[in-house]
Automatic annotation (TrEMBL):
Molecular functions per Gene Ontology: nucleic acid binding
A Pfam family annotated for this UniProt entry: R3H-assoc
Official protein name in the record: R3H-associated N-terminal domain-containing protein
Coiled coil spans: 115-149
UniProt-listed InterPro entries: R3H-assoc_dom, R3H_dom_sf
Length: 265
């Protein structure tokens, strides 16, 4: 038996085997890729008729935005312009702050953006809004009727500290302060509790949120108090007092009433 390895005429060439190997040497693809990339870049540059070699300034560090050099003698004018802009921003800040603290006339009949966004996310709250608003509209209508009746009878709707106190003496000698009774009666008529809940009730905060926005929509003042034991949160609405030229406070009632919120939203 003759072995091929011991035969002198047998030559083995391993190079073709390496070329057809499925995993070539690492240096072959790397050199090929670099050569291919250089070839493509050179080809693109050669095919561009407007190509220019890089200048030394291209390698310098400089801003890419246009730079405006201001002469030195214009510096005071430049500072004056910056000072004027700063003053405008300072004056605009209190103005924007006062917009959030707008008067009742500015917020009457205006639906706040916050209320719209809240009701978009809570569609089921429209029924609660309807119930609360109906109570508020009844209160406003009742106050408007009382003011109209007071005007017809020529009775002042406000109370001034300079008015004389009227005291009636009964048959048994007892005195009654009618001014105090009428004042407390008017005070009860000008405010009303709309909503109450336990202090720890997390869901009730949304009801108070609706009441405050309903009050702003109808030009009323709203507030919440904590009373009792266990503690309860009560939400109230009341008439705003407009300061007249005479120095007296007159209740402000929105007339005519705007469209209901639950219809608009």
């Amino acid at each position: 038996m003759v072995s091929l390895l011991s035969h002198p005429s047998t030559e083995f060439n391993c190079e073709p085997l390496a070329l057809h190997h499925s995993y070539p040497a690492p240096h072959i693809p790397i050199a090929f890729n670099v050569f291919r990339i250089d070839f493509l870049l050179s080809d693109r540059l050669l095919s561009n008729p407007y190509v220019e070699p890089p200048q030394p300034r291209d390698w310098e560090i400089h801003p890419t935005h246009p730079v405006h050099s201001v002469p030195y003698y214009l510096a005071p004018l430049w500072d004056a312009g910056l000072a004027a802009r700063s003053a405008e921003r300072k004056n605009a800040a209190p103005k924007t702050k006062s917009q959030f603290q707008a008067s009742a006339d500015d917020t009457r009949g205006v639906v706040s953006k916050e209320l719209r966004e809240k009701l978009k996310r809570a569609r089921g709250a429209k029924g609660l809004l309807m119930d609360l608003e109906e109570e508020v509209r009844k209160f406003v209508q009742r106050c408007a009727e009382q003011e109209h009746a007071a005007e017809m009878e020529d009775i002042p709707s406000d109370v001034d500290s300079s008015d004389e106190e009227i005291v009636f003496v009964g048959r048994n000698g007892q005195m009654s302060d009618m001014r105090g009774r009428s004042k407390s009666r008017r005070h009860l008529e000008r405010e009303m509790m709309i909503f109450d809940s336990l202090e720890g009730d997390q869901g009730a905060s949304f009801g108070r949120f609706l009441i405050h926005h309903i009050g702003n929509y109808y030009g009323l003042r709203t507030w919440s108090v904590t009373v009792g034991n266990p503690a309860r949160r009560e939400a109230y609405i009341g008439l705003r007092e407009n300061k007249a030229k005479s120095g007296r406070c007159a209740p402000a009632v929105l007339s005519p009433m705007p469209r209901p919120l639950w219809v608009i939203l």
